[in-house]
Amino acid sequence: MRLDKSSAENAARILKALAHPVRLRIIESLIDGEKCVSDIIKAVGGKQSITSQHLNMMRDKGVLSCRRIGPMVYYRIEKRDVITVLKCICGHKNRHN
Amino acid sequence: MRLDKSSAENAARILKALAHPVRLRIIESLIDGEKCVSDIIKAVGGKQSITSQHLNMMRDKGVLSCRRIGPMVYYRIEKRDVITVLKCICGHKNRHN
DNA sequence: TTAGGATATTAGATAATTCTAATATGAAGG
DNA sequence: CCTTCATATTAGAATTATCTAATATCCTAA
After folding, report:
1. B10-95 in CATH: which number?
2. Are B88 and A83 within 8 A, CB to CB?
């Protein structure tokens, strides 16, 4: 795999962008396609401001991207690998490894 | 996928356990089998105390496990999924998504 | 042009991580 | 017993993440 210092930092940055329960749920809600912010808020059930901050953070890290259509902003998953990561980690609620 | 609040928290906990460059490198160094602490330290090139703290932290979260043989403690990957996560995230140094 | 809905930004408080340096423990040989 | 090598633990400082609440922006219809 050859994980030199800077690739490790890069990978860690992406993983940090995922490592929050609300952010994971946001990603899950976007698996089947883009959604506008208010729909994301409904899906994850959080406050507007916090959700917006999480969205912004993930966009910064390249995990999500967005486009505006009229007054709404639609977010979608840009780094599709995170879906694999999510599925891989979530298959393990009750298993031991 | 059905990511309820508590599964999301669980998944986030594991991802947090991975989301650090040194910890990723520790995991990489353990892919091909268990290693004692001093060999891990050599492999990742960090300080003894910090490496020990990271090892301990990942053991706490169930990512690693260890056994003592004489004066040495051997760590190994307990949650093999993290290898998939690592490979999946690391394949993307230069790709755009 | 202004009002309202949709989203973003900000500042500051609180909490969690990470690092540092020092000290502690544990095993084994002499 | 002591010493030494291997590892763990600790306390506190420094950094970074998160939440809160308030305010700002952006778009569109009237």
Report:
1. 1.10.10.10
2. no
